[in-house]
Amino acid sequence: MTQVLPKIVTFDEFIAWYPENAGVRYELHNGEIVEMSQPTGKHERVKGFLVRKLSVEFERLNLPYFIPNQAIVKPPERESGYFPDVLILNDAALADEPFWEKSSTIINGASIPLVIEVVSTNWRDDYYLKLADYEAMGIPEYWIADYAALGAKKFIGNPKQPTISVYQLIEDEYQVSQFRGTDRIISPTLPEFNLTAEQVFDPVPHT
Questions:
Q1: Taking the alpha carbons of 19, 109, 90, 182 in that order, is the dihedral positive or negative?
Q2: What is the dihedral of CA 14, 19, 20, 25, to 10 degrees?
Q3: Would the pTM count as exceeding 0.85?
Q4: With 0-12 CB in 10 A as exposed, 13-18 as middle and 19+ as buried, what is 36?
Q5: What are the backbone dihedrals phi and psi of residue 73, each rounded to the nearest 5 degrees, phi first?
Q6: Cα separation, 115 vs 158, whole angstroms
Q7: Which of 124, 129, 146, 172 is positioned for an S-S bond with 119, CB 3.0–4.6 A?
Q8: Angle, CA of 136, 58 and 166, to the nearest 5°
Q9: Which residues in 111-145 are b (16+ Cβ under 10 Å) and which e?
Q10: What is the largest CA-CA distance in the chain?
């Protein structure tokens, strides 16, 4: 991840600056515009698989959820803006989002039943920065899908191995459950979701 602009900018300046059809993705981290690293094929495979499986689950349960192609999550009281790898939105809650129609920006944690980051070389952002900000927003569930076991041992254990960390908001603080190998992923938001960590990380398509 490389810094793009040396000066500190506001979120509004970031939105006004953001280039259309840039071909790369940028985020705003505490007033600094950063260019996100080019994702690997495995990263996109894991992301695409989750999007497909989650969308099927929404349809099956008749939930008012959808996954936007591109939307910004802005934490409270910070000049930051994130583009999560997988962002699930509650369509029924978007009427209370003041910036949704103009700039596809979400500021209320209540609009986001579940957010997922697929870990790449910038793993510290997922485990430190975004974990704290998603918690502060009150997002009820946050997954970190660490398919290459890049996170520090204090986050995914020793020896390190591919891990899905599911953070659930309990009394305004995240509590984590972790899933590896043939562990079935337990999601508070989608309790009938029937996938193992191994299935998510395996590049072979599943039906």
A1: positive
A2: -80
A3: yes
A4: middle
A5: -105, 120
A6: 26
A7: 146
A8: 40
A9: bbbbbbbbbbebbebbbebbbebbbebebbbbbbb
A10: 48
Nearest-angstrom CA–CA distance, 132 and 189? 20
**8 falls within a domain:** no
Closest CA relative to residue 166, chosen from 45, 63, 50: 50
CB 115 within 8 A of CB 134: yes
Angstrom distance (rounded) from CA 97 to CA 101: 8
Residue 33 pairs in a beta bridge with 28
Instruction: Render pLDDT for 12-33 as a digit per residue (tens, 0 to 9).
Output: 999 999 988 767 889 999 999 9
Are 4 and 26 in contact, with CB atoms under 8 Å apart? yes
d(CA 146, CA 161): 9
> Would residue 106 count as lying in a domain?
yes
Residue 157 in domain: yes
- Boundaries of domain holding 136: 41-70+85-201
Q: What count of residues does the chain have?
A: 207
Euclidean distance between CA atoms 123 and 100, whole angstroms: 28
191: in domain: yes
Tens of pLDDT, residues 107-117: 999 999 999 99
